[in-house]
Specification:
Blueprint: H1 14-63, H2 65-69, H3 73-84, E1 89-95, E2 101-106, H4 116-121, E3 129-134, E4 139-147, H5 150-200, H6 214-249, H7 259-269, E5 278-286, H8 288-295, H9 297-315, E6 322-327, E7 330-336, H10 343-355, H11 363-366, E8 369-377, H12 383-400, E9 406-407, H13 416-428, H14 430-433, E10 434-440, E11 442-443, E12 450-460, E13 463-465, H15 467-476, H16 480-496, E14 504-508, H17 511-514, H18 520-529, E15 536-541, H19 542-551, H20 556-564, E16 568-574, H21 583-587, E17 591-594, H22 596-599, H23 602-607, H24 609-621, E18 625-628, H25 634-643, E19 647-648, E20 657-658
Helix pairs in contact: 1-5, 5-6, 6-24, 8-9, 9-10, 13-15
Length: 659
């Protein structure tokens, strides 16, 4: 049974279509050239056969005159045989005047060394030549001579082969030259096609150099102008979003984040399911109001700027550290838990920086006093009690020092020691101690991109431990990456046993794991061995992404490797940084989830509406989905829908449930 394969040429690329047309034209030209050459040679050989036959008939007729006068049959036969036996003739026949055959010879041999198909395609009709034999006053007979075409066929075949070789060589050279020329023409066309594909992927690359041919120059120049226009539009959206964000959350004097930003960040840090813990350091100075009255507001602004500069010099560049100015004379530094061992040194360095400030030596005379207060925080802490403890520590520092001091009456790190054994036990038997919980994402459109987020729950020794406490303890003891790997193993095992619904699930990974150059190769290898990478989305905080990009670390390549495996990226707490948002263009995550500081309540949503709209325009312009977390009321849900978000998640839709 035969099969017919239909190929729609219209669906082929322009390059392939042109190649097919050129190949067909060249092939037709090649065969037409061979056909013309062979037919010309055949006509020439046919005429040569006719001349040869007539010459042979004439000369042989003259030779037969004497034997026919003498009626010498033996001589007649011998004369004809001598010529015929040379093998150049197909037939010779001698007839009497009345048409009676007196003698006849025939050779029915096929042409040698010539293919049968060639003989059929290019037939040579051997002409029949004749001559009358004169025997005096009468005609003694008629001689018919027909040459054999075998030699002519051999010459025709050899000529055809030679012509084919020469023509093929010429056409091959022409094809090679045409390919080189067409390749030069293809380059800008292919570049334009690749550029269009990149635009679809929200990548904006220019074609350079621009081709010089008029049509291609016009086309490529128009494409480049369009790319610059689209990129400029998206850059404008990014700048607009950044400006709106800074207007709402940036202190203009110190250039640090303001109190609104701090309150939003603190709310997300104290959520029950937050996985972060750490310390708050408050720098407070007294006498600002009196200084403004006595020396003017410029002197007060100078004081604020010098204090901000001292904080930046000590803390800027430290991973996970965030600085805020929460009031005229108060600054807060939010630090991760893993900075615990260096807090005393950092505070001492900050004191040193303040001492070197230009106004410091005159501070007592100007009525300026400084104090540093420290407090720790963890998920589930009460905001009011936390800030009260921080305020109390700062005030005690002011009271005990003549101008600058810092105090911490906290037992930093205490409590984690008891959890060390628990973390070790979980890592020893992860399949027995780690269970998964799922919380669905609600999509406002019909298409569900990410189905749910998976969380880890920990049980050891018959007791259930909050995930935030376990991750905080693991971070404190440098085991958070091992804990992440154990949780990821449970997720892969769970997904492998579930049917593929086409939707994805989000799994959070900390930066200590995701950007660990010694650990990620083994994780990538494990992902390659699984069959569920297309269903995985790794959630990464915006702060972690910005920290890595600022370091220009090769760890950014890890994200590209993960995407190459089919793993998608989700940016958590999008908008939490006051730095540029253009990193989205390079990263192009599947989704961003807005910082809860903008969306955690109806009041915040209304207050931040202009800023959220700019975020949405930027993300949607890049083809990135936008979601919100901690949605707990119908009012929040309605406002998010009106803003145009793609998805929301929170207790309003469903609480996390065990799998």
């Amino acid at each position: 049974m035969g099969y017919f394969v239909h190929i729609d040429v219209r669906r082929l690329s322009l390059k392939n279509q042109l190649n097919i047309v050129i190949l067909l034209l060249v092939s037709l030209s090649f065969f037409a050239s061979i056909w013309v050459n062979v037919n010309n040679a055949r006509g020439f050989l046919s005429s040569q056969l006719a001349v040869h036959a007539q010459d042979t008939a004439t000369s042989l007729g003259l030779s037969l005159r004497e034997p026919m006068l003498e009626e010498d049959e033996y001589a007649i036969h011998a004369t004809i045989n001598a010529i015929f036996d040379a093998g150049f003739f197909e037939s010779m026949r001698l007839e009497s005047v009345d048409g009676r055959v007196r003698y006849e010879r025939k050779l029915n041999a096929a042409p040698q060394d010539v293919p049968v198909w060639f003989v059929r395609f290019f037939p040579l009709k051997a002409p029949m030549a004749s001559t009358h034999i004169d025997t005096g006053w009468t005609i003694g007979g008629v001689l018919y001579v027909q040459p054999h075409p075998g030699l002519a066929y051999r010459q025709l075949w050899q000529g055809a082969v030679t012509s084919a070789h020469l023509t093929l060589t010429l056409f091959a050279f022409a094809l090679a030259l045409g390919y080189i020329l067409l390749r030069q023409i293809y380059k800008p066309i292919q570049a334009a096609s690749e550029q269009a594909r990149h635009i679809g992927n929200k990548q904006f690359e220019l074609i350079n150099p621009v081709p010089k041919s008029k049509e291609l120059h016009t086309f490529v120049s128009a494409m480049n102008r369009m790319v610059l226009s689209v990129k400029s539009m998206l850059d404008g959206l990014s700048e607009l979003a950044q400006k709106a964000q800074q207007d709402a959350y940036l202190d203009t004097t110190s250039k640090l984040a303001n109190r609104a930003a701090f309150e939003g960040r603190l709310k997300s840090l104290l959520e029950l399911d937050a996985a972060e813990s750490g310390y708050l350091l408050m720098l407070r100075f007294e006498g600002l109001q009196e200084l403004n009255k006595k020396e003017g507001y410029l002197a007060g602004d100078e004081l604020v700027q010098k204090a901000a500069a001292a904080l930046l010099k000590v803390f800027q560049g430290l991973e996970g550290v965030e600085l805020y100015r929460i009031s005229g004379s108060e600054f807060v530094c939010c630090m991760p838990e893993n900075i615990y061992g260096t807090i005393d040194d950092l505070c001492s360095e900050l004191v040193g920086q303040l001492k070197h400030a230009g106004f410091f030596n005159e501070a007592p005379a100007r009525g300026i006093r400084f104090g540093l207060g420290l407090n720790s925080f963890a998920a589930g802490d009460e905001r009011k009690q936390l800030l009260y403890g921080l305020d109390l520590a700062a005030r005690r520092a002011l009271d005990e020092a003549s101008h600058i001091a810092y105090r911490s009456e906290l037992g930093l790190g205490e409590g984690f020691s008891a959890l060390k054994q628990v973390v070790d036990g979980i890592l020893a038997t992860p399949s027995q101690c780690i269970s998964l919980r799922t919380q669905p994402l609600h999509w406002y459109g019909a298409h569900t991109v990410i189905e749910a987020e998976l969380f880890a729950a920990f049980e050891f020794g018959g007791l259930t431990y909050p995930a935030a406490d376990i991750f905080a303890a693991a971070t404190h003891f440098g085991l958070v990456s091992e804990l992440d790997v154990a949780v990821l193993g449970c997720v892969l095992e769970y997904l492998s046993g579930q049917p593929d619904s086409g939707s994805k699930v989000v799994v959070g990974l900390c930066k200590e794991t995701l950007f660990n150059p010694s650990l990620m190769p083994s994780i990538i290898k494990r992902l390659k061995q699984s069959a569920v990478t297309q269903r995985l989305v790794f959630g990464v905080s915006e702060q972690a992404l910005l920290w890595v990009s600022e370091k220009e670390s090769e760890a950014l390549l890890v994200l590209e490797q993960l995407k190459g495996l089919g793993v998608s990226i989700c940016v958590n707490r999008f908008g939490s940084s006051l730095r540029s948002l253009t990193y989205l263009m390079a990263l192009k995550p599947l989704m961003v989830r807005l910082d809860p500081a903008f969306t955690a309540s109806e009041e915040l949503l209304k207050q931040n509406k202009p800023l959220l709209l700019s975020f949405l325009s930027l993300a949607h312009g890049l083809g990135v989905k936008v979601g919100a977390q901690y949605v707990e009321s119908q009012a929040q849900f309605n406002l998010l829908s009106e803003l145009g978000l793609d998805a929301s998640q929170g207790y309003y839709h469903a609480r996390p449930k065990a799998i």
